[in-house]
Amino acid sequence: MSAQVVQSVAEVQRALDGIRAAGRVIGLVPTMGALHAGHGRLMEVARSECGCVVASIFVNRIQFDRADDYDRYPRTLTPDVEFCAERGVDIVFAPSVEEMYARPQRAFVEVERLTEHLCGRFRPGHFRGVATVVLKLLNIVRPGRAYFGEKDAQQLAVIRRMVADFNVPVEIVEVPTVRDADGLALSSRNQLLSVEERRIAPVLIRALRTAQGLVAAGATDADAVRCEAARVFEGRPEVRVEYLEIVDPEEMQPVARIEGRVRIAGAIWIGKTRLIDNLLCVPAGSSR
Ligand code: AMP
Asked: Using CA atoms, how far apart are residues 31 and 44, in angstroms rounded to an integer?
């Protein structure tokens, strides 16, 4: 199988016009490349639901709050294209920076409230950059469905809200997090970890699972759950916890009492690498 690699906006639009006219549903999987099985799952789900699958690969400078993070971000286009082809992607849209930002970007998408906590608090401008590039991609590709991972739950909530508030005619599809055997969520950043750092990294999912277990067992005091979960990091000087918060799953606001479904989300630094993860927590007997 081979995928068509397209670098220009005009060319991808030309390629998709005929497909749209033929009535085939277009599915878009936006990525920043350095593809792994998590991205692969998004592509497989898109493949099973759409007549034409487009994967975009673009490391979006304007969503990086730190220049060093942008510079260190892995870029592996040739194997990525192969990876897409193996999963049945029809078109890989891999624009250059000049193609995506042909002139200085003056219009930006700001999603309020949902971006106040979690990553939004620690990465100024991050979600503005994400929402802006995703709106550009949705306008370029005009997919019927677009696929995003639960791994980045705040990003997903922000995109859902942007699409709803701007009446963008696309269905946003959430795909569950793909993990390694030890629970670590797959991430392009995992390849930046040393062997020793990789060994330590599952501490994050262990903390989240501790919280999930407490909520399932009936705990309702969010602070107590958070503190108990944070104890997993004790005696781990290599790990710096950036945040560990319990929020409502739609507006991403911290909750004090756990009465329905909540999300526990965390970000940690191990050495120079930042890892994030989250889990949905469902109280015992909750249908909400
Ligand atoms: P990224 O390339 O990191 O911007 O991610 C592109 C898309 O893949 C986003 O929608 C992510 O949420 C999703 N994704 C990243 N890692 C995973 C994973 N481990 N499981 C499922 N989806 C993922």
From this structure: 14
> How many CA atoms within 13 Å lie on the side-chain side of 184?
19
For the whole model, what pTM was predicted? 0.97
| Whether residue 39 has its Cβ less than 6 Å from ligand 1 | yes
**Probe ligand 1: pick from 29, 58, 152, 190, max atoms within 8 Å of CB?**
152
Our CA angle for 173, 178, 179, nearest 5°, is 160
In the reported structure, the alpha carbon of residue 218 is separated from the centroid of ligand 1 by a whole-number distance in angstroms of 31
pLDDT tens digits, 10-33: 999 999 999 999 999 999 999 999
The catalytic residues are 39
Strands 52-57 and 4-6: unpaired
Structural domains of the chain, ranges and CATH numbers in brackets? 4-175 (3.40.50.620), 188-279 (3.30.1300.10)
Alpha-helical runs (H) found in 142-202? 153-165, 195-200
Q: 187-214: per-residue pLDDT in tens?
A: 999 999 999 999 999 999 999 999 999 9
